[in-house]
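User: two proteins, same treatment. go.

Assistant:
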Amino acid sequence: MSLLFESIQFGSLKLENKIVVAPMCQYSATEQGEVTYWHEQQWANYALSGAGLCIIEATAVQPEGRISYADLGLWNDLQRAQMKALLAKVKSLSPMPFGIQLAHAGRKASTDKPWDGKGQFKPDEAHGWQTISASDLPFNPTDHPPHALSKDEIQKVIQDFADAAVRAVDAGFDLIEVHAAHGYLLHQFMSPLSNKRTDEYGGSFENRIRLTLEVSQAIKNAVPRDYPIGVRISATDWMDGVESWDVESSVGLSKALEQLGAVYIHVSSGGLHANQEIKIGANYQVPFAEAIKKMVQIPVIAVGLIIEAEQAESILQSAQADAIALARAMLYEPRWPWHAAATLGAHIKIAPQYLRCQPHGVKSLFEPF
């Protein structure tokens, strides 16, 4: 039996299989952070993919929390209403649950769309604004320095995460993922490379993870009881020879998040420092997921250059992770779960309109939703 196509529980939420569509920024929102037709077709693609769960792209809780001027936001009720209408359409196609990743880019905000390649905009440029962070250290030396948040401003960030979570629940999302990875604001507070504060939000490990824990707790307090909340983290800064965020730190954070009621830990890496040296290859982040899985009881999701069905199955069979997240592989082949089911001889539920397309002679069995 294929483990990849067994069901899994993320708290109160049951997934039909262990394939997760990872959050992927599309840089296709309006300048007001609202959904467009691009999101309609993209979410519909995800809904028909056969995956167990889709988590939509990093969605900013404040205007200045967007990575770019073309990122989604959930800081007002118009954004919520438009997402609610779109999500209702998408959910009419399949029963697959949808989650949303709530985020704040911190000092890595105010950038151009990646394919336009202009980097970060300064506050006085079109499409630019003043960024914020734990300290006034820029990500790149040529970037405009971020504003170091005061304690009152930190409380505003926490409240805005909670308010966005309330909107996400009302919009119909089945799960919230807190984005504490890839060098964005929460990660900036956690890493000693970007956090030079001397108050209760800086210095010791306990102080540096405080904001992530307080955001998670505030969201938990704001949403219905037992509503599932997961967290995505960067397991390491990939910065050898200096004091930085590492796997040991990530284990400690994961334990604390588990105590707060997180339903999973989604393990990525990097993004905090411009001089990171990432050793990229197949399964390059899986050992981080494995290290964390050994120390917590909640599910751990592995991600990163997992592109083949047998590869994903092997990770689960060897107990290195509990679920598999796919990003670029799903963009390249939106029906990746169908092909994986055929390869592994597994059952997968798909829209009945597609039942006739099952290839002759394959061992998998398509079933209607």
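Protein 2:
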Amino acid sequence: MNRFLVLTSVLVLVLGCKNQSKEEVDTSDKSVHWSYDGETGPERWSELEGETHCNGNFQSPINLVNYKVSEDLEPIDLHYSEKTILHDVANNGHSIQYDFEEGDFLIHETDTFHLKQFHFHEPAEHLIEGVRYPLEIHLVHQNESKEFVVLSVMAKEGKNSKPFELLESYLPIQKGETKLIQRPFDISQNLPQNKGYFSYNGSLTTPPCSEEVTWIVFKQAIEVSLEQVELLKYLMPINNYREEQPHHGRVIYSTSF
């Protein structure tokens, strides 16, 4: 009887382990990657990603129109250093992304948000009074509560950009590839001289489309050469941008400068 109970217990454990392994494989097989077109495009993100906010009411990007000029908006409290280390660059299949080591940060409403990474969208995701620029850079900052402040920099075709020369010296980079950089980089060189901006509450523009995001979109665009724009365009997915989302009553504020 004891031997029978032992054998039964072992059999149950073995079958249980097999079932668990099968369930894990099935879950993995059901995972679906998102993209910018077709059946995994933006229109289907809320379906493909399950528990996300991609069909929420306060999504990004938006068209920055009908904004309110606010005298209460102050200059952005930036703490960027030329000594901060740019760690690596990766082609994640959705964009070209540069990752920073800890060092650069900004202060928003007395809270500290550390710069984590920046990446590109071509053409731009946000529209400014209906105008879509050829390139948009997102500088992603995060605090300890996992909330985001994202600085958005528009770029237009013009003169060659020296800071871009360093960034693009590590390109081309194949999809799924990461290249180590480990060099100091002053991200402030990629910001416009005029720091006037628009601000509103929105979301990440890629899945999971989290809505704990404060957007700060600079009014003035920086200039990059046509060749620099074309290189990024060649490496990234075609039109890696999300279409504008409804305002749903949100207020867009603008600095007076």
